[in-house]
Amino acid sequence: MRADARRNYERLITTARTAFMEHGTGASLDDIAKRAGVGSGTLYRHFPTRDALLHAVLRDRIDALLAHADELLAEPAPAPVPEAAPDPEAEALDAEAALGRWLRTYLTGAATPRGTATVIIEAMSAEWAHTGLGAAAAAICDALGRLLDRAQRAGAIRPEVGPRDLLRITNAIGVAAERTSDPAAYSDRMLALLFDGLRTG
């Protein structure tokens, strides 16, 4: 990519990030191009669809979310007391806590720009499979699946719960939270209720 094209690309992403934060994911693409100081044709050459632009804007956040899942899965278990038997209850609590922390982090990201949770729900469908956002949704679902599997193997979460269903429910919380005066508090309250239904005991 030429230097001037690279500058336009980066300026469009920066401008789109601001516009999406101000107006949600439905912000006008023509206005984004105008604010970035380029023509609409330049925007569409770099980003043929709104979803391609949104994926570029969200890429860093998605990468951080996936890395967070890896970090949680790699956290060492508490050092056992010498001669003590493994503590299944402690393992279950740790696995549930890791899953809850990741879902809270996810909802924090899904809350901004407004409309992100709805986009991810749509991107989980088969017709999005070959798009950037579709691949991102699949990667998010895979990361959630690994955390969920750990919690289920530890006996913390009911075994019939699947990652796609859990991701859809979590996104539904995100969509509803957008319409409240305190999205973070609402999300925390709904996640607490959700986990009451997910636990085995």
Automatic annotation (TrEMBL):
Keywords: DNA-binding, Transcription, Transcription regulation
DNA-binding region in chain numbering: 28-47
GO MF annotation terms: DNA-binding transcription factor activity; transcription cis-regulatory region binding
Residue span(s) of domain HTH tetR-type: 6-65
PANTHER family registered for this protein in UniProt: HTH-TYPE TRANSCRIPTIONAL REGULATOR BETI, HTH-TYPE TRANSCRIPTIONAL REGULATOR RUTR
UniProt-recorded name of the protein: TetR/AcrR family transcriptional regulator
Upper classification of the organism: Bacteria, Bacillati, Actinomycetota, Actinomycetes, Streptosporangiales
